[in-house]
Amino acid sequence: MRLHKNLVWAVIQGLESIVNKEEQADKAVERILKTDKRWGARDRGFIASTLYEMVRYRRLYESLAEVKAPYKRSDCFRLFGVWATLRGHALPEWPELQGTPVRRIKGRYEEARKSRVLRESFPDWLDQRCVEELGEKRWEAESAALNKEADLLLRTNTLKGNRQDLIALLKEEQIEAKALPKIAEAVLLPKRANVFRLNAFKEGRFEVQDANSQRVAHWVNPRPGEKVIDACAGAGGKSLHLAALMENKGQLIGLDIFPAKLKELKRRCRRAGVHNLETRLLDSSKVVKKLKGSADKVLIDAPCSGLGVLKRNPDTKWKLDPDFLKKIQERQQEILQQYSSWVKTGGELTYATCSILPSENEKQVELFLKSETGKGFKLLKQETLFPSETGFDGFFLAKLLKES
Ligand SMILES: C[S@@+](CC[C@H](N)C(=O)[O-])C[C@H]1O[C@@H](n2cnc3c(N)ncnc32)[C@H](O)[C@@H]1O
């Protein structure tokens, strides 16, 4: 494939913004793709996948290009030279790429591959932490799986139609789509497509949502007519799914500490035809008290390290630090302690994270069950969905029954 200058320029700009200005990778890609309407699907695909790959393998590429952040413009081209060399592209004769030491890059790559922290590009502290918690063999598999490009998955909004109808609608738009056998609403798109431009999206017939993320609402298993609380609803990826499983019947309450996220959730509800969801801002202890002992099902989709979703947000690797991890784990326990009070006797609590670290998952559940608040609860089941085994994002799920 020929490398086009304007596409490479877009990649370089994105890289500068993600690394030097700490713009979130998905936001940077979205912003850059809007800058030129003439770019077709292949061009857009090239920009997005190249940028993601350069962020994913940032440590490896920095070591081979012998550059360090923050990047100068010339550093970005050196990094791009490494990417192109490893990908087997013939380097264009642009002045910016003159002098790229192709043979040296290849030689150094053979050496670098022997070290996981370089090959899979993780900071030393995070690699060590993952080995300590998951063991060498498991982390070897997960570190590689987390560097794979994320598949594009849709969740059929069953409030607006069934999965076969959605697949037929996509076919009319020349988009290949496959039903995933094990997840009732999931549709896999083998080839990338800009699905947000489709009428089916504007009409709320589907959401873009990872397959393992779609398992969360099924674990909660809400029934039409029940009272269900989504404690950390954010912009509502899981809430919308819960509402669909409830067939819009019963009461669904979505809470978060950020008003902007709840506003976005309401907007998404309108598009999805969700009528049984009410949002509440968690801005005082009164809001927490008022819901005590009231819910049949509570979902805590807790804030976490995001280690399970590195495929989607590879820049997280470079933003995490040990102090953040410690603080987020304290917050997870506080959240469990507080919001578990909303479950009524005989009701269920689902604790979920998009992390694969036991210290954010099983250990949090264990700590909760040993605490005074956790005494009335019984663990029904728990599972870590590993990217290396499932091919999708990493998630943890635990279901607890409130017995007394
Ligand atoms: C993993 S995200 C949830 C994603 C969301 N459930 C979805 O499916 O799109 C965690 C959410 O918890 C929220 N959060 C952080 N601290 C919180 C707290 N103390 N109480 C409630 N929500 C909190 C964050 O704002 C964030 O939206």
UniProtKB/TrEMBL annotation:
Entry's SUPFAM superfamilies? S-adenosyl-L-methionine-dependent methyltransferases
> What is the top-level taxon of the source organism?
Bacteria
Write out the entry's keywords from A to Z. Answer: Methyltransferase, RNA-binding, S-adenosyl-L-methionine, Transferase
Transferase among the record's keywords? yes
CDD domains, A to Z: AdoMet_MTases
| InterPro entries on file | MeTrfase_RsmB-F_NOP2_cat (IPR049560), MeTrfase_RsmB-F_NOP2_dom (IPR001678), RCMT (IPR023267), RsmB-like_ferredoxin (IPR054728), SAM-dependent_MTases_sf (IPR029063)
**PROSITE patterns per record:** SAM_MT_RSMB_NOP
Identify one Pfam family in the record.
Methyltr_RsmB-F
Positions binding S-adenosyl-L-methionine in this chain are: D256, D283, D301
Q: Does the keyword Endoplasmic reticulum apply?
A: no
Q: Which organism is it from?
A: Aureicoccus marinus
Residue intervals of the SAM-dependent MTase RsmB/NOP-type domain: 142-403
UniProt protein name: RNA methyltransferase
Active site, UniProt feature: C354 (nucleophile)
GO biological process terms on file:
RNA methylation
The UniProt transmembrane annotation reads: none
Similarity section: Belongs to the class I-like SAM-binding methyltransferase superfamily. RsmB/NOP family.
**Which is one GO molecular function term here?**
RNA methyltransferase activity
